[in-house]
Amino acid sequence: MPNSLIKNIAIDLKDQSTKVLLVENNDKFLFREDVISALSNEGIKISLGTTLKHRVDFELRDNELLLVLLSDSHQKYLEDIINKSKRYEFFFVKYVGSYHIPSIINEDLQTLEVLYKRNPVINLSKQETLAELKKIKALKPANAFNISLFKNAIESELNQPNIDWGTILNSISEGLTSTIGSEQYLAVVDVISNVNDAFQKELKNNYAQLKNSSAVKSPKIVSKILDYIDFNFHNDKIALIVVDGLSWWQYDLFRKKIGGLKQEGHVYSWLPSITQLSRQAIFKGDSPDRAYRQNPANEEKLWLNYWKSKGLNEFEIRYNHEKIHLENLSPLKRFALVFKDLDDYMHSSKDFTDLLKLTENWIVRSQIVEVINQLVKEDFKVFITSDHGNIQAKGWRSLKGREKLGTNKSGSRSERHIEYSEDWLKDELLTNNPDLNDSVVQEEQAIYFKNNYSFSSKESLVTHGGSHILEVLVPFIEISK
């Protein structure tokens, strides 16, 4: 037997003496994008998603490959599939059972291969497993990312008379995706901090004008997206995909897998960068109402009202939230799809290392690439955007006692933004905490951070709600055949 985790998994799957395998995998290890890619190199095609997706892959299967129809629970299959297949349950623990599984299951494949090869005879506790991980990571070769070139490229762009923030975003994205989880990450964060200082000056000088900017050539801010679509693509079939909490660097993880012709740009989120305001602005096509209650039903009403006001019939308009339905698309002219769970993963992450792994898994499990490609195939012009990005923040401190009086989180789970019911309550907080003044923006009764602080006591967390460049500049992508 080869001394390789992936190769032995491949051997076990192929040893089932069938060309179609119905695999249940509750620990979701096989759902990982990197695992799917590695197994494809071993002659195994993983199919996950809806029953319809399984059916398509079954009908179009290559008999030279093992087709694995993957699910995380027992799934019903039609009789013809069952007759030509075999059921199998996969457990990650079978291969690395000596370790504390929750501590290692999300590690990268390179690390898992090392763990597999070491294969201790005795079972290790959580603490012992983490100690072993620390040893392995200490031995990893230095990342090939060139910090000096990265820093020089950023500084060169920041010294231009007119800064190209799109170029900056691409550089930041490369820096983050190349160094998250490595020793070089902190050096990248320092450079991004300098970028954000420049970006805050940009916001102070120009953000207010964006709210009244023209949407003819391109939308500068999320509230202008619908006007841009209506003006330029009035007679086209449009699908607007809004991924809650998608930063540019996360989009970078799946951009190359999307087919069709892409025009890649960015828009500014509404400030403060909370869902209640910024996503409302997208679907309203106008400045948001602070009294608005954020929920899918209200969002759908905004979407319907905007397009009905442009002369469309209700049967030509559809809104999907989380559960995406790609049936009966022919009557549709305006289709909104909201992917919510990436934002949930973001709020559950302690740092960008967590979020990177969760995003990679989300790309596979959400099937966002497949959804986009299917819509393009159905002659939709597809737009991808987000209501806000995210930032790895650190705690300033939590509000205490009287400081919480009159606060209203505005339907947001953000810990970078608070809103008071009265001006004097906000003024009292700032008077009693003068160190806050250089770190926050004041807007009416709201206060939000512009650096990487948060109203929490956590050493590290991932959230949104402020005006940091990673929260504010979000993807706006056009895709067509």
Question: Summary?
Answer:
The protein contains 20 helices and 16 strands. The protein has 481 residues and is of the alpha/beta class.
Topology of helices and strands:
Elements: H1 5-14, E1 20-24, H2 33-40, E2 44-48, H3 51-59, E3 66-71, H4 79-83, E4 86-89, H5 93-96, H6 101-104, H7 109-118, H8 126-139, H9 147-158, H10 165-179, H11 185-210, H12 225-232, E5 238-243, H13 248-251, E6 261-268, H14 275-284, H15 296-308, E7 317-321, E8 334-339, H16 341-347, H17 352-366, H18 368-377, E9 381-385, E10 391-395, E11 417-419, H19 423-432, E12 440-443, E13 446-449, E14 453-454, E15 461-463, H20 469-472, E16 473-480
Parallel strand pairs: 1-3, 1-4, 2-3, 5-8, 5-9, 7-8, 10-14
Antiparallel strand pairs: 6-16, 9-16, 10-15, 11-13, 12-13
How does the major sheet shape up? 6 strands, mixed
Q: Termini, distance in Å?
A: 46 Å
* Number of separate helices: 20
Percent in helix: 40-55%
Count of distinct structural domains: 3
Annotated CATH topology of the largest domain: Alkaline Phosphatase, subunit A
Low-pLDDT residue spans:
none
Total number of β-strand segments? Answer: 16
List the strand order in the largest sheet.
6-16-9-5-8-7
Shape annotation = globular
The name of the CATH architecture of the largest domain is 3-Layer(aba) Sandwich
Please report which band the strand proportion falls in: under 5%, 5-15%, 15-25%, 25-35%, 35-45% or over 45%.
15-25%
Q: How would you classify the quaternary structure? A: single chain
Structural class: alpha/beta
Q: Please, what is the average pLDDT? A: 91
What is the rounded Rg? 24 Å
CATH level 1 name of the largest domain: Alpha Beta
